[in-house]
UniProtKB/TrEMBL annotation:
Gene3D superfamilies (alphabetical): Sodium:dicarboxylate symporter (1.10.3860.10)
PROSITE patterns for this protein: NA_DICARBOXYL_SYMP_1
Entry's Gene Ontology cellular component terms: plasma membrane
Protein name: Amino acid transporter
This protein's UniProt keywords: Glycoprotein, Membrane, Symport, Transmembrane, Transmembrane helix, Transport
């Protein structure tokens, strides 16, 4: 008993010594690495991460510049001149959205095997349907809990009348947009059911035990659905066409190789154009942020609403990204999801920089 009590303190001392030795060795190794950093290493680091550094710096400078210019009370025309470089960035990005979307989808689907793409497509449809339903549910719950933008509800209702849309018509419009009758028109317009009033004359027949009254007419108005269109890219129709077109090219084999090579070259050319435009992005982001800050009327109210909206979005994304998606990954693969996420850190960091430039593109779909 005495021997075991004597061994336990000795093991504790040995364990503490090992921990201390490990900490010292790691600190020495870190010190050597810091001391071994040369000027070329720093230049290489900034060269590899120049785009992200410039983007973050542009965001910070844009916020500072916006608040610095705001006290001068610029007119509407002056604000437009001030944010003109940011407008150029958005126009260049919008210019490349369509060719990039079509060429990348056709190239990707043409490179897949027919059977593999069929299985992959079915799994993708099931996966995206499941995650979309879960994301919508999380979003609704977060909005009901946090109530972002609650203060502007009455003001919005007074300024704009909300058009009532039948759920059946909205669903049918979704299917109609999947099959556009004109691909050129799909680049600029989307199909949307609109409503018109129609006057109907109805004959009233009144039956009674004593007498019967026939022939009286009553005029009624009813809302009927009519075909319509709204401005915006019909991305759904273009995606469906591009996927089907790419699968057909893949099934043609050698006969479809020239067409496949054409879209491969087109996709590569568009990607190089995007890479060039991305280097202009920090300048555009700087003036976009500064211009938006300058043109705000009541920055306190707007800041509060944006803050609540930001909290809602971040909470929803954290729940979806840290709990829902890892749980689905574990249920399907029976593997640790966070090991997989660790391998995506570089891509996630790159996406953090790119999202600042692409956040407005969804508005044009």
């Amino acid at each position: 008993m005495t021997q075991s009590n004597g061994e336990n303190p000795q093991r504790t001392r040995n364990g503490l010594q090992q921990i201390r030795a490990g900490i010292q060795s790691r600190s020495l190794l870190a010190k050597k690495r810091v001391e071994s950093i040369t000027k070329d290493d720093l230049i290489g680091f900034f060269t590899r991460n120049a785009f992200v550094i410039f983007t973050v710096a542009a965001v910070i400078i844009g916020i500072i510049l916006g608040f610095a210019v705001r006290p001068y009370k610029l007119s509407y025309r002056e604000v437009k001149f001030f944010s003109f470089p940011g407008e150029l960035l958005m126009r260049m990005l919008q210019m490349l959205v369509l060719p990039l979307l079509v060429s990348s989808l056709i190239t990707g689907m043409a490179a897949l095997d027919g059977r593999a793409s069929g299985k992959m497509g079915m799994r993708a449809v099931v996966y995206y349907t499941t995650t979309t339903v879960i994301a919508v549910f999380i979003g609704i719950v977060m909005v009901l809990i946090i109530h972002p933008g609650q203060g502007s509800k009455d003001e919005f209702t007074n300024q704009q009348q909300i058009e009532q849309v039948s759920p059946a018509d909205a669903f049918l419009d979704l299917i109609r947009n999947m099959f556009p009758p004109n691909l050129v028109e799909a680049c600029t317009k989307q199909f949307k059911t609109q409503y018109a009033k129609r006057v109907v004359h109805v004959k009233m027949i009144v039956n009674d035990t004593i007498f019967t009254l026939n022939g009286s007419e009553v005029t009624q108005e009813e809302m009927i659905p009519v075909p319509g269109a709204v401005n915006g890219v019909n991305a759904l129709g273009l995606v469906v066409f591009s996927i089907c077109f790419g699968l057909i090219i893949s099934s043609m084999g050698e006969q479809g190789q020239p067409l496949k090579d054409f879209f491969d070259c087109l996709n590569e050319a568009i990607m190089r154009l995007v890479a060039i435009i991305m280097w202009y992005a920090p300048i555009g982001i700087l003036f976009l942020i500064a211009g938006k800050i300058v043109e705000m009327d009541d920055i306190t109210s707007m800041g509060g609403q944006l803050g609540m909206y930001t909290v809602t979005v971040i909470c929803g994304l954290l729940i979806h990204g840290l709990f829902v998606l890892p749980t689905l990954y574990f249920l399907i693969t029976r593997k640790n999801p966070f090991v997989f996420i660790g391998g995506l850190l570089q891509a996630l960091i790159t996406a953090l920089g790119n999202i600042l430039k692409l956040c407005h593109i969804a508005h044009y779909f």
